[in-house]
Specification:
Elements lengths: L2 E8 L2 H32 L5 H5 L2 H7 L9 H23 L17 E4 L6 E3 L8 E5 L3 E6 L7 E10 L2 E9 L12 E6 L3 E5 L4 E3 L3 H4 L1 H13 L5 H35 L2 E5 L3 H4 L14 H14 L1 H15 L2 E5 L24 E3 L6 E3 H21 L1
Parallel strand pairs: 8-11, 11-12
Antiparallel strand pairs: 1-5, 1-7, 2-6, 3-4, 4-5, 6-7, 8-9, 9-10, 13-14
Length: 392
């Protein structure tokens, strides 16, 4: 099993400057390689590959020893592979008839990570274990202090440094991570994701939606109004932009923390977890329509989209799947259609059964319950049926 561990870095002021320069040089390398590919295709219809561009690295480093030459050769190869993957994805979308989306040049605020593909190759995890503080060595930067809040399991394969607002993080990707199965509980649960309540279980337990973005809405609005008044490209604009980014990063950390805690609770108490197979991108499409056929209830739909994205269903389901795999639990994704309209007692399905947002009353048998609980019970029923069909 492979697992990633993310730790906060605590660099000095000098190391922050070096890390920023490292990102900038790798960004320039990425953009230069992309420009070379575009020019080769425009002039001679030639498609450059990673191998051809990687061979130029030695000459580039020799010509710029104080810039590109001070960073790890392997990390620069990883940046070129990053571009190569983007180009391959572009050609794959073209072949599939999808919207291609040609790779773009990276601006200073859109290139925030650098990868070292192998431990002890231009980097070294916990290079000074005799000291009290855990540190990571990065070529050209030095030994950077790491806030290692948990123990590493497995063998460190790759290291990445990522900038998020004003913070720097170390991401370790580890191989050979053993699974840690939890004891069986004999319980199976279905969960229904919502906005009024973040999660409703088939046994009636509900978890409140924390609405972290809504809580920070006023502070974000004030900061964004101040940002709109700043002179473009001024130091004040740069500082205010950093403040806005820090507020968004705080909301993101709160949302991920809540998802981890909720998923951990589910995994520890249930052997089988059935959930809806949600297509969140489709659910949060704009209702504005076109000039010829404008949409209806656009403001209400925009508010609903904001609430769905604030709840963070997508990241929660990803975290739940990862924790379930590690703990030896089973997650089952089922079709969400009509789960809140079908009576779990008599299986009568009609939109009239959902008399209100939170109320369900079956028009056929009179069964009444909370609508989210009904949805969760139908999700559990569908999940157990799917598991039985796959096992047969």
């Amino acid at each position: 099993m492979r697992r990633a561990f993310k730790f906060l870095l605590r660099p000095t002021a000098r190391q922050v400057a070096l890390l920023t320069a490292c990102l900038e040089d790798h960004r320039q390398l990425y953009n230069a390689a992309l420009a070379e590919r575009r020019e080769a295709h425009r002039r001679a219809a030639l498609i450059l590959r990673y191998g051809a561009q990687s061979k130029q690295l030695k000459d580039i480093r020799r010509a710029d020893p104080d810039g590109q030459g001070r960073w790890s050769f392997s990390s620069q190869q990883a940046t070129l592979r990053r571009l190569d993957r983007a180009m391959q994805a572009y050609f794959r979308r073209v072949a599939a008839g999808q919207t291609p989306g040609y790779p773009r040049f990276k601006g200073p605020r859109s290139f925030d990570s650098v990868e070292w593909p192998e431990d002890r190759d231009g980097c070294r995890w916990n290079a000074t274990p005799d000291r009290a503080a855990v540190r990571v060595y990065l070529q050209g930067v030095g030994h950077v202090r790491v806030h290692a809040h948990r123990k590493i399991i497995g063998r460190v394969k790759t290291l990445s440094v990522k900038r998020e607002a004003s913070r720097w993080y170390l991401i370790l990707s580890c191989d050979q991570v053993p699974a840690t199965p939890l004891p069986d509980t004999g319980r199976a649960v279905g969960i229904n994701m919502g906005v009024a309540s973040f999660l409703t279980a088939s046994d009636g337990i509900q978890i409140d939606n924390p609405r972290y973005l809504a809580r920070s809405k006023e502070r974000l609005a004030n900061a964004q109004r101040v940002l709109a008044r700043r002179k473009p490209r001024s130091n004040r604009q740069r500082k205010t932009r950093a403040r806005v980014a820090a507020l968004h990063a705080r909301v993101r950390r709160q949302r991920i923390d809540h998802a981890h805690k909720t998923a951990r609770w589910l995994v520890h108490h249930c052997d089988v977890i059935a959930h809806e197979n949600l297509h969140i991108k489709n659910m949060t499409r704009s209702a504005a329509g076109t000039v010829g056929t404008p949409g209806v209830n656009v403001a209400a739909k925009a508010g609903l989209n904001r609430s769905i994205l604030d709840a963070g269903w997508g990241v929660f389901l990803l975290i739940l799947a990862a924790k379930a795999e590690s703990a030896g639990r089973m997650t089952i994704a089922v079709d969400p259609r009509n789960t809140s309209r079908t009576c779990p007692a008599c299986m009568h399905c009609a939109k009239e059964n959902r008399v209100a947002q939170a109320d369900f009353v079956c028009m056929a048998c009179g069964y009444a319950a909370h609508a989210d609980v009904v949805g969760a019970r139908n999700v559990l029923r569908a999940g157990l049926a799917r598991r039985a069909a796959e096992a047969a």
